[in-house]
Amino acid sequence: METTIEEQTCTAAIHGVLCRLGITPNYLGFFHAAYGALLAAEDPQRLLLVTKWIYPAVAKRYGTTCKAVERNIRSAIAIAWKCNPGLLMELSGFQRAERPKNAQFLAMLAAHCTRSVSVETPAIE
């Protein structure tokens, strides 16, 4: 499977922000959230039905169940909320009284990815 420069930039941006949030690659949620966010960045409409469009694709890629994907992303969010709530607030763009839901978290990561790609990819004039 061949990846584009944009996908590589996006993946690197997502991995970087996940690590800054305290979610390291030793958690399954790291990979599940990263791939889910990449899918959401490719097609933001997927965020409308994460249980139908994102979780099954992530589960298939990692050989697990949709329920496990949902749980692992939720665990990753709990880690981020505990380790670096300030960065989580920065990514969401506003103060939060409670940690984000899975779809909100994936949307924040996808938006970060999109911003990173637009900064890295020069406009063609």
Written account of the structure:
- The protein has one domain (5-120): Orthogonal Bundle (Arc Repressor Mutant, subunit A), CATH 1.10.10.
- 71% of the residues lie in helices and 0% in strands.
- It is built from six helices and no strands.
- Helix 1 packs across helix 2 and helix 2 crosses helix 4 (66-83).
- The chain starts with a helix and ends in a 5-residue tail after the last helix.
Characterize this entry briefly.
The protein is an all-alpha fold.
CATH class type? Mainly Alpha
Annotated CATH architecture: Orthogonal Bundle
The percent of residues in helical segments reads over 70%
Number of strands: 0
What's the helix and strand layout?
Elements: H1 5-20, H2 28-42, H3 50-62, H4 66-83, H5 85-92, H6 102-120
Helix pairs in contact: 1-2, 1-6, 2-3, 2-4, 2-6, 3-4
